[in-house]
Amino acid sequence: MALQMQGVGKRYPGTLAVDNVDLEVYSGEVHALVGENGASKSTLMNILAGTFGDYTGGVLVGGKEARLDSPAAARTGARSTGGRLARIWGNLPASGERKGREGTCLARGAATPLR
Ligand SMILES: Nc1ncnc2c1ncn2[C@@H]1O[C@H](COP(=O)(O)OP(=O)(O)OP(=O)(O)O)[C@@H](O)[C@H]1O
Ligand SMILES: [Mg+2]
User: Fold this and answer.
1) Bridge partner residues of 23 (DSSP)
2) Residues 6+ apart with CB under 8 A from 22
3) Ligand (nearest to CA of 21)
4) Residue 21's beta-bridge partner residues?
5) Could you tell me the residue range of the domain that residue 101 belongs to?
6) Which of 6, 25, 37, 87 could connect to 49 by a Cys-Cys bridge, CB 3.0–4.6 Å?
7) What's the pLDDT at 108?
8) What is the dihedral sign for C-alpha 19, 24, 25, 31?
9) pLDDT at 40 exceeding the cut of 80
């Protein structure tokens, strides 16, 4: 399994935004996260991006526990796991007309030149 979230939670002051979320993603799968405004889509993805040091629950990358409590930790797939996580934003002006695969290169540090 590429990615697993187990009982993940995130509380802002006064708001329990993410409550006990489980997610399983296998290699090669494509998922869509759909919800109304304020449903916590961004918060859930921000957890995977290492935005918060105070999320609860567990995240496994490549089957190994990862602590995504900083962007650097998330970028390296939480180091110890050997896996990698990258978040891309489709609506950034910097993304221009780039396709998804090129955007992924951008998120990973653009190992290959972008056209
Ligand atoms: N920094 C913050 N401090 C306090 N509450 C927050 C913060 N960021 C988000 N929230 C609240 O957490 C909840 C989830 O917000 P989030 O932005 O993750 O939702 P979303 O599904 O991405 O919404 P949208 O469709 O508008 O992008 C909302 O109730 C929001 O008001
Ligand atoms: Mg959002």
Assistant:
1) 5
2) 5, 6, 7, 8
3) 1
4) 8
5) 86-115
6) 87
7) 56
8) negative
9) yes
Mean pLDDT score of the chain: 82
Q: How many domains does the chain divide into?
A: 2
Residues 30 and 68 in one domain: yes
User: Which two structure tokens, joined as six digits, stand for 47?
Assistant: 């957890």
Q: Which ligand is nearest to the CA of 33?
A: 1
By most ligand atoms within 8 Å of CB, the mutation choice from 16, 41, 48, 87 for ligand 1 is 41
pTM value is 0.84
Calculate the alpha carbon distances from 31 to 3, 18, 24, 26, 99 in Å: 12, 18, 10, 10, 17
Work out the pLDDT band at 89, boundaries 50, 70, 90.
confident
Atom of ligand 1 nearest to the CA of 35: 21
Distance in Å, CA 44 to ligand 2 centroid = 9
Sign of CA dihedral 50, 27, 98, 36: negative
109 contacts 103 by C-beta, under 8 angstroms: no
The letter for the amino acid at 81 is T
| CATH number assigned to the domain comprising residue 56 | 3.40.50.300
